[in-house]
Amino acid sequence: MTKSVWMVYLLVILNMYIMTTRNTNTIFASVTQQIAGEEEIIIPSSFSGGKQENKHYPFTVAICIIIKDAEHYLEEWLYYHFAMGFDSIYIYDNSDAFELKNWYDNTRNHTTFRNTKVIHWVSPDKGSNQNLSYKDCVEKFGHDKNGPMHDYFAFIDVDEFVVIRSPQQYNGIQDVLQDYLVPYGGALTVNWMLVGSANKTVYSPLPVTKRFQYRDRVAHNVIKSFVKSADYVRHKTPHSVILKSPAEIHTTMSPGAIFKPASEAAASDHDRPSDILLLYHYRYTSRKEYIYKRCFRGEVEGDSWCDDNGNGNSDISGINYKKGTPKHVEIAAGEVFDDTAWKFLRERVPKYKAFDAFEDFHYT
Question: Which of 158, 103, 95 is nearest to 123 (CA)?
């Protein structure tokens, strides 16, 4: 059976199933099961002088991530970043009960997910939870001679997607690092691009990159970091790193450009370089999910932005924030249509094209 015939057959089966059930959770379970096959991720050849060529870089790049209560978006995020060219992903599960253990045990032979490792991580110091998990990740998987000794790491969250803004020039993450980090060492900053709620009201079992396609007009000043393992000491904040002297922090403003921190925390870059690489931050998702995330679950550091006593500032969605809450925390719908991340995912991981047949009716 050819791939095109298989896809048509899959969509027919999915549509028949939807017509015979009213239970959304059951629908989602069926869809997930049917699209979770072992289809290969497609990574086209790299570009050189406007022409594609095969490149094999003599370095590896991995992601360190700490998550909690984010299982419903995890697999999409993993597929996306493996398709971007990351070699390995180290997941620090911050749940008390090690909720990802079964998923981890059951994916050791999976074509893609076997390149992950899940570590149960419950730090006694919640205030430094994220920073400590990052340091542990680099020490075990970058510095330890008995480990894989990855050359470079990215430190991002499950609601952040690495987006190449110049796809005509760069095909994957190694291509970008080869020009902007490898020749210089140290670290490389990447600015946020906030992606709005698109006025979605509740969760829907569809890919986050498909549901939310309206972003801000310009990049945000907040940054996250890539780092060369050999130059890494520790994190100053979840956004910024401390390096061994004389290594320096760079940006994508131009190859070798030096990062000019906007504050002591070194967590923002007001130049906001945006032409090469950005981190699309799906901070809000739907209104109901965001209320749970901000007011009930809180951050992995233990913080909550909501005011239980009703003394804070209320935004247009009705969420009541604590006084002093940063403006970017308040929910926003987004202004500019941008389906870059979704197009990347469905092209690199073809089975996600099946979701094109589904609509999302949860919006105002």
Answer: 95
